[in-house]
Write a structure and sequence with these properties.
The chain is built from two helices and eight strands. The protein is an alpha+beta fold. A hairpin with a 4-residue loop joins strand 7 and strand 8. The radius of gyration is 15 Å and the shape is globular. InterPro entries: AraC_E-bd, Cass2, Reg_factor_effector_dom_sf. This is GyrI-like domain-containing protein. Pfam families: Cass2.
Length: about 160
C-alpha cells in the first residue's frame, strides 16, 4: 500500500481581502506560541456563535507577519473570516488582510510540525522565481483543526 504525503504543493494563488475576527496571541518567546495558539483556537471555537456574519464557520484562519512590522500587528491572529465587521465580541479583535498573491502548500498532520513545512514552501518559492514578502500577512487556513491533527493551507505572501 502506498503512503500519501502529508504535503501537497498547490502552487500560486491570489487570495481576496479577508476580514477576520478573533484573538491575537502575543508571547515573549517562540516556545510560548506552541502552547498559547491551540488554547486560543479552542476558546475561539467555543465562542464562534458570538461572531456575526461568519463566512465559513468551519474554517479557522491563523495569520501573522514573518518579519517585524509594528507593535499593533505583532503576534499570531487566531480568527474566523466575516463578511463584514459587526459588533466585535468582548476581548476579540478585528483584522483586515489585503488581497495578496501567495505560494500555497497543503499540510495534513500535527500543528506542532507546521513550522518545519515552511522550509519546503520557502524553497519552492525561490526555485520557481518568486520572492517572499515577509512584511505581508501569512495565512494558515484550516479546513480541519483539532489538538492532534490539522488540514491546513499554508499561504506565504510572494511577488
Amino acid at each position: 500500500m502506498e503512503e500519501t504525503s502529508p504535503i501537497t504543493l498547490n502552487g500560486v494563488r491570489e487570495v481576496d481581502e479577508k476580514k477576520l475576527v478573533g484573538f491575537c496571541v502575543l508571547c515573549n518567546d517562540t516556545a510560548g506560541y506552541g502552547q498559547e495558539i491551540p488554547k486560543a483556537f479552542m476558546t475561539l471555537e467555543r465562542r464562534k456563535d458570538e461572531i456575526k456574519q461568519l463566512v465559513e464557520p468551519v474554517k479557522l484562519i491563523g495569520s501573522f507577519k514573518a518579519s517585524e512590522t509594528s507593535k499593533e500587528e505583532d503576534g499570531y491572529w487566531v480568527c474566523y473570516e466575516v463578511h463584514d465587521f459587526e459588533e466585535i465580541p468582548e476581548r476579540m479583535v478585528s483584522l483586515v488582510v489585503p488581497s495578496q498573491k501567495y505560494g500555497v502548500l497543503n499540510f495534513k498532520g500535527q500543528s506542532s510540525e507546521i513550522y518545519k513545512v515552511y522550509t519546503y514552501l520557502h524553497q519552492w518559492i525561490g526555485e520557481n522565481g518568486y520572492n517572499r514578502v515577509p512584511d505581508k500577512w501569512t495565512l494558515e487556513i484550516y479546513s480541519k483543526w483539532t489538538e492532534y491533527e490539522d488540514n491546513v493551507d499554508l499561504c506565504d505572501p510572494i511577488f
